[in-house]
UniProtKB/TrEMBL annotation:
<keyword id="KW-0479">Metal-binding</keyword>
<protein>
    <recommendedName>
        <fullName>Glycerol dehydrogenase</fullName>
        <ecNumber>1.1.1.6</ecNumber>
    </recommendedName>
</protein>
<keyword id="KW-0560">Oxidoreductase</keyword>
<comment type="similarity">
    <text>Belongs to the iron-containing alcohol dehydrogenase family.</text>
</comment>
<keyword id="KW-0520">NAD</keyword>
<dbReference type="Pfam" id="PF00465">
    <property type="entry name" value="Fe-ADH"/>
</dbReference>
<feature type="domain" description="Alcohol dehydrogenase iron-type/glycerol dehydrogenase GldA">
    <location>
        <begin position="14"/>
        <end position="160"/>
    </location>
</feature>
<dbReference type="InterPro" id="IPR018211">
    <property type="entry name" value="ADH_Fe_CS"/>
</dbReference>
<dbReference type="GO" id="GO:0008888">
    <property type="term" value="F:glycerol dehydrogenase (NAD+) activity"/>
</dbReference>
<dbReference type="InterPro" id="IPR016205">
    <property type="entry name" value="Glycerol_DH"/>
</dbReference>
<dbReference type="InterPro" id="IPR001670">
    <property type="entry name" value="ADH_Fe/GldA"/>
</dbReference>
<comment type="pathway">
    <text>Polyol metabolism; glycerol fermentation; glycerone phosphate from glycerol (oxidative route): step 1/2.</text>
</comment>
Length: 375
């Protein structure tokens, strides 16, 4: 029998990434390179905030534009509805304008109709913009599956002036999402796991993930304060790039592990936890993965201290959960360990009781830390 071939190393990325203050209204020159009939997908709030100005800019540049409202959930039904409208308009470019679920929906529409895809995030709250996948939810907001595409977006354009005016909670959420990148990638690499890019990690994928974490520990506090003041600074630019580009490339070509699987487990619950952002739930998943892997007190507290400063949830109470609610915690753990979940990308196979134990241990440690530091 012929020996099996080794798994290839794979790195993928968007075709073009552009970032800077005020560049949304310079986007026509970039969009013209990928098509002429543009369907912009945005929710009502984002459209009222930035959509009309963008529409005027593109009209003036001679680009044919149509707008459709995104109804809030990256679900199969919403994608099907908008894909039918995009085909009716004969769009050759789908532009996603808004937050993570809007952007994931735009990518799915572009894949459905075979068009180019342009991604214009209005917050730096997730690493969704650059990736060749979407996180699909059901109509109730519960995680359903990952949907993978043959290519990454053709254009990702990030206007830091818009992001600086967004609530700082969104930047903090993006920092939490991005802080998971290296923690999960290094675990996935150690286990020789297959990444979302479809192969083992490249040296570049690992280096990007590590640089992402270094950038955040260096600039996250400054950037958060700049965002609170509504101003663009070098620190904000660095963190926006880390949240969006470095984290996006790092998770996709470096690997995911337990932090995002636990996030997906949280979506299986009902109640107030659904008021939290993606990154806020990932933050607790990241701390749980660190606890699960037996990290040192010194390393654990490095993440914990930053999360507390950024107002991220570090206790079960902050997630609207209770350490005595074994039914809910077991439901999270069971969902996080489903077949195909990224929790299986660790060098050991976690059990439901191990994940529940890690979540409770994070809660106890965080409470003790806050008491010791008068927080």
């Amino acid at each position: 029998m012929a020996p099996s071939k080794p798994t290839p190393r794979v790195f993928i990325s968007p075709s073009r990434y552009v970032q800077g203050p005020g560049i949304l209204l310079d986007s026509a020159e970039h969009l013209k390179k990928i098509g002429q009939r543009h369907l912009i997908v945005a929710d009502e709030f984002v459209w009222n905030m930035t959509g009309n100005a963008l529409l005027g800019h593109l009209d003036q540049a001679g680009i044919h534009v149509h707008h459709e409202q995104f109804n809030g959930e990256a679900s199969a039904g919403e994608i099907e509805r908008l894909s039918a409208l995009a085909e009716r308009f004969d769009a050759d470019v789908i532009v996603g304008l808004g937050g993570g679920k809007t952007l994931d929906t735009a990518k799915a529409i572009a894949d459905d109709i075979g068009s180019a895809c342009a991604i214009f995030p209005t917050t730096a709250s997730t690493d969704a913009p650059t990736s060749a996948l979407s996180v699909i939810y059901d109509d109730q907001g519960r995680f359903d599956r990952y949907r993978f595409y043959d290519k990454n977006p053709d254009l990702v354009l990030v206007d830091t002036e818009i992001i600086a005016k967004a609530p700082a909670r969104f930047l903090a959420s993006g920092i939490a999402d991005a802080m998971a990148t290296w923690i999960e990638a290094r675990s996935s690499i150690a286990a020789n796991s297959i990444t979302m890019a479809g192969g083992q990690s490249t040296l570049l994928g690992a280096a990007i993930g590590e640089t992402c974490e270094k950038t955040l520990f260096t600039y996250a506090r400054q950037a958060f304060q700049a965002n609170q003041a509504g101003i663009v600074t070098p620190a904000l630019e660095a963190v926006v790039e880390a949240n969006t580009l470095l984290s996006g490339l790092g998770f996709e070509s470096g690997g995911l592990a337990c932090a995002h699987a636990i996030h997906n487990g949280f979506t299986a619950l009902s109640g107030d936890i659904h008021h939290l952002t993606h990154g806020e739930k990932v933050a607790y998943g990241t701390l749980s993965q660190l606890m699960l892997q037996g990290t040192s007190d010194e390393e654990f507290e490095r993440y914990l201290a930053l999360y507390i400063e950024l107002g991220l949830p570090v206790t079960l109470e902050a997630l609207s959960l209770d350490s005595n609610d074994t039914e809910a915690l077991n439901a999270v753990a069971t969902a996080a360990l489903k077949d195909g979940e990224t929790s299986h990308n660790l060098s050991f196979e976690p059990t439901p009781s191990m994940i529940v134990g890690a979540m409770i241990a994070v809660d106890r440690y965080a409470q003790s830390y806050k008491t010791r530091h008068g927080l």
